[in-house]
Amino acid sequence: MKKDPFKLGIMGGTFNPIHHGHLAAAEFVREEFKLDEILFVPSGKPPHKHKSDIASPEHRWTMTLLATGTNKCFSVSSVEIDRRGKSYTGDTILELKEIYGARSDCYFITGADAIAEISTWHKSGNLSELAKFIAVSRPGYKLDMSKIDSRFHRCTYLVEVPALAISSTEIRERIRRGKTIKYLVPEIVEKYIYKNKLYQGV
Ligand code: ATP
Ligand code: MG
């Protein structure tokens, strides 16, 4: 039996690859906001990212599954990967509300960099009525309301999480240069990356 209302955290991302910055932020928010579950939602065709250097949706989904497997409150959704065309946050939240029930309380978690883009997101019009937004601190990005569209002020929480200056971009670059990524990603993800020769191209 699911709790009513069920408190669902949604962590969207490219997860190219997933790293300890994502996992630590999600776990911290889960505890602080007493969320019942955190659903990681790897994007299918990220509308904001360049095509090159993106591992296939299947690889990103598998790495996310492997990385989250040791936390019983974490799970992974393929809604965005299964959807044809580009993925938009509003569509994803609506689809998840159908799966988890209309009464479920959705908390969309983003880093300080991603929340700033929120008002530029397509169909961001009714987003502020669909979910609450949790913007977490991230080294190198300022976390303040002035960066966030005023429509979202009412439903956005700013949260300082333990700082991990890790990014997927840096991990990909390190792999390309033959540098270690140990302790930046879970060991099982590191093994998956090497086994499948991901991110090694120029
Ligand atoms: P890339 O460098 O390819 O953009 P990324 O590390 O930013 O990768 P994303 O998949 O783009 O990872 O991020 C998914 C979500 O996680 C975003 O909301 C992002 O702001 C947040 N996030 C990523 N890394 C961190 C981190 N180290 N601390 C807090 N939040 C993070
Ligand atoms: Mg990013």
Chart the SSEs and their pairings.
Blueprint: E1 7-13, H1 20-32, E2 37-42, H2 57-68, E3 74-76, H3 79-82, H4 89-100, E4 105-111, H5 112-116, H6 127-130, E5 132-136, E6 156-159, H7 168-176, H8 187-195
Parallel strand pairs: 1-2, 1-4, 2-3, 4-5, 5-6
Helix pairs in contact: 2-8
Adenosine-5'-triphosphate binds next to helix 1, strand 4, helix 5 and helix 7.
* Portion in strands: 15-25%
CATH architecture: 3-Layer(aba) Sandwich
What is the overall shape?
A: globular
Write down the overall mean pLDDT: 90
Helix content: 25-40%
Strands of the biggest beta sheet: in what spatial order? Answer: 3-2-1-4-5-6
How many separate domains make up the residues?
1
Distance between the termini: 49 Å
| CATH fold-type name | Rossmann fold
Low-confidence stretches: none
Largest sheet: 6 strands, parallel
Round the Cα radius of gyration to an integer and report it.
16 Å
Bound heterogens, unique: adenosine-5'-triphosphate, magnesium ion
Question: How many distinct helices?
Answer: 8
- The level 1 CATH classification is Alpha Beta
Total count of strands: 6
Could you give the order of the helices and strands? EHEHEHHEHHEEHH
Helix vs. strand class: alpha/beta
At the fourth CATH level, what is the homologous superfamily? HUPs
